[in-house]
Amino acid sequence: MQAQFLSVISDQVYNWQKENLPENSLFILHDGPPYANADVHVGHAVNRIIKDMIIRYQVMQGRRVSYIPGWDCHGLPIELKVLESLEHGKKAWQLTPVEIRKLARQHAENTITKQMSSFKEWGTMGEWDNPYKTMTDPDYEIRQLEVFRSMVNTGVIYRRFRPVYWSCQSHTALAEAELEYAPQHRSTAVYVKFPLLTPDELVRLVKEQSDVNICGKPVHVLVWTTTPWTVPANQAIVVNPDMTYQVVSSDRHGVLVLAESRAESVSDDLGPLRVLAGSIPGSALTSFGYTHPLHSNPVSQSILAADFVTSDAGTGLVHCAPGHGMEDYLVCQKYGIEPCSPVNEFGEYDATVPAGLEVLIGKSVFKDGQSTVLKLLAEVDALAGVNSGYQHKYPYDWRSKKPVIIRATAQWFADLGSIKDKAVMSLDNVDFLPETGKHRLQSFTRERTEWCISRQRAWGVPIPALYDATTGDALLTDTSIEYIINEIKKVGIDTWFAEEDDITHWIAPEYREEGKSYVKGNDTMDVWFDSGTSWTLIQEKYGSLREKAKNLVDVYIEGSDQHRGWFQSSLLTYTATHRNGKAPFGTVVTHGFTLDGKGRKMSKSLGNVIAPGAITWEKFKIDKVMMQPIGVSGLRLWVAQNDYTTDISVSVESFKRVQDSLSKLRRTFKYILGNFNPTPYFTYERDVPYGELGPIDQHALYGLYELEKSVKAHYDNFAFNRVVQAVNKNVAELSASYFQLIKSRLYTDHPSSLSRRTALTVLAHIFRTYASVLSPIIPLLTQEAWHHAPCCVTGQNEDVFSPFVAGWYETPEEWNNEKLRDDFLQLSQIRDAVNDGLEIARKSGNIGTSLDAGVVLSTEPSTSAFELLQIYSKLTTVAEAHLSEYFVTSEVNVLTTSADSDATTACRWSVPKELTILGSRMKTTVVSPSRHKCPRCWHWNAKKESEVCAECAETVKSMHDSKAP
């Protein structure tokens, strides 16, 4: 049965809406592709179920939806995983790129199959038979290459030898989005002395200010760095031109130059410093030169000026290695200093180290290489101080969880400076939930100047560049790229990675006659470029339908980390290739991460993830507490009840709330449907008109009206937790009030009586409303209920096989009876006072249930309170006994204050209470009933003991007569 309903709510509903809902109402939720690398965890469930609730609500609103699931298939983690899995056969280094790609593709396919199975088990719908993948689908890779080609043609793409983040474990460049920052990383921080050249001006200043002659004495500029392994690549020292510096003398380290604002802190580390001369502007120091203490053939190097030098730490002079620092590179470019980066892809010093430092070759910059640098500095008295446990924030590779280095290599970049302003401006017309997402995405986009899009791996989409075999110059023109793309269409993308003796077929005819020899490039594109161009799928499929739409896609929704990832890469690639001033998305929704009981983000690396399958089908443990499985509906309800805009705690309490809520909802549907079981006397075929319903029934419908309107607003704002809160509140009110009040009508009145049919009418409306408002969240439960509901309950014919086909149940405006609402606010206060009296009577042993009592209500005549009571006690409709039904007592008498004592004196017992209603004093008196208890309905309305009351007698007679042949 579960599988039957899963098929209905997923495949059948999705296909039905594609064929039957209007094309011009199309709503597109574009899937941010999960990575095809591992089993699913509860974070996947949060993401997928939120998306499913969004599109299901749109179907309920009569809109055709498009949801094409996708998978991100390329990249380093998959490649590393398949290489690590190699056993006794070929070693990783023996595999060709084509062999690596074959293994990686198979791994990704296997993962997709498993992940898709889980996603479908959660009752999510979409085009599961036609998902998109960033691999294997040649159309996807061709579209991606076309985006790259377009960006080349607009001058956005270029190649440069410059520093990039580099993973020594993975041997590839990384983009900013592939980093995470460890706040408690420990580095070795050192003070290094660099000899200053021709300090004649300093000699004069010292002589004038302190009468000390330092002529002939060595003078050093003092720098501080947390990356001493970069000192061999030093090419400049940078000062702040607006800061002031001083010359100081140290008994241990001689004459030094440093910033005045840093002198006190430096003296704490290096010992007492005596000021020899001060107030030297940083701009004056740029006229001096210095030498490198470790170079065997030292030459004069420059002191440069830059405003990124601050007085927050260090000495106010920054060691500058443009091959190993972003800011270093930029400032050196201004002065024509090309970067030196004597470190290979493994993070080891290579043969390009400066003369005299050959001892470093082959040593790791993080280990023996750095310790050797420190030893060499100490040997030439250039090492002034060492702190081996300096704690600070440092970038890590988010995959290997290892610290990265910055290393200059030849890479392909996208120039974001030319497009980011346009991208940021386009966000003004995008809605964000939460709103802070807009600032985050704007901020992250503004901060970037370029995007390193090349990677040194085999598993990915190639950068279609050819290189001159002699000069290494790249051939990347529109003509060449177009030709290569067409060749890939014919021979397949793997062929690019194959070893070939003759690559002529990759060279456009225009370039074959130049007499040059070319080789294919080995770089692949950043996976963020892969997934970031997924909008091309939507543009190709629905472009003509979306020309007049606000944006190409209605909604993007992913985790909050995607402001640096998929949201941004989609925005940048779209903006770079379009001139319409729009972003690819109209609304961006972000959700938080799932946290364990200790408040830690759930992740595979920490081993604290929970498989959704364990939650739905098996007993599972949270914080050492064994929990019962909650099923698919429970999992979906758990996702919905959380405020996903913040991090979500996977806690015992949250799952207990789900179990309680789901149980109440299931009981509510069972209660409603149980009252529609057919009997020989049952003639309910249509709803009783609103005007014929009693006040209790109309008041219940007012509650439904409020529920439907508020829930619709919450869905429109993607606030699913508020939907759950509103439904839970209404369920509690119905269970505690309306369902209790109509029991007598349902169980004792004639099955075909107007009084019972009014109650059934309201129950049918409750069913339709609940089926409507709950279907986006727990479609499996609502579909099951719909399956068992007769047409008179659903209000639809048998062809309407699902609540999604029926559509949103919009409550009529006539239910919005504010006068009735206000009246019941007053009546509820009276009922509270009556309940207090009933509880006292129960504790004193006078009654067992509330039906064992009557109520006398008394107030002054000609008051608003008296008029209210008169209205609701003298009704001649089916709610004639409205107040007694509302209080669940056998009788209610409304009297003036003067007649009250006469009515209560004759009672065997009474419990009076006083309150103020509508500005008037009122007394409620719970009293002993004046008649006998009816053995059928339990009301004390019988004239004689052990006899049924008149109403029951009439009902029994009518039922008996209707059975007569």
Automatic annotation (TrEMBL):
GO terms for cellular component: mitochondrion. Pfam families: Anticodon_1 (PF08264), tRNA-synt_1 (PF00133). PROSITE patterns: AA_TRNA_LIGASE_I. Its EC number is 6.1.1.5. GO terms for biological process: isoleucyl-tRNA aminoacylation; mitochondrial translation. It is found in: Mitochondrion. It comes from the Eukaryota. GO terms for molecular function: aminoacyl-tRNA deacylase activity; ATP binding; isoleucine-tRNA ligase activity; tRNA binding. Residues 697-856 form the Methionyl/Valyl/Leucyl/Isoleucyl-tRNA synthetase anticodon-binding domain. CDD domains: Anticodon_Ia_Ile_BEm (cd07960). Residues 12-651 form the Aminoacyl-tRNA synthetase class Ia domain. Gene3D superfamilies: 1.10.730.20, HUPs (3.40.50.620), Valyl/Leucyl/Isoleucyl-tRNA synthetase, editing domain (3.90.740.10). InterPro entries: aa-tRNA-synth_I_CS, aa-tRNA-synth_Ia, Anticodon_Ile_BEm, Ile-tRNA-ligase, Ile-tRNA_ligase, M/V/L/I-tRNA-synth_anticd-bd, Rossmann-like_a/b/a_fold, tRNAsynth_Ia_anticodon-bd. It catalyses: tRNA(Ile) + L-isoleucine + ATP = L-isoleucyl-tRNA(Ile) + AMP + diphosphate. Keywords: Aminoacyl-tRNA synthetase, ATP-binding, Ligase, Nucleotide-binding, Protein biosynthesis. SUPFAM superfamilies: Anticodon-binding domain of a subclass of class I aminoacyl-tRNA synthetases, Nucleotidylyl transferase, ValRS/IleRS/LeuRS editing domain. Belongs to the class-I aminoacyl-tRNA synthetase family. NCBIfam families: ileS (TIGR00392). This is Isoleucine--tRNA ligase, mitochondrial. It comes from Lipomyces starkeyi NRRL Y-11557.
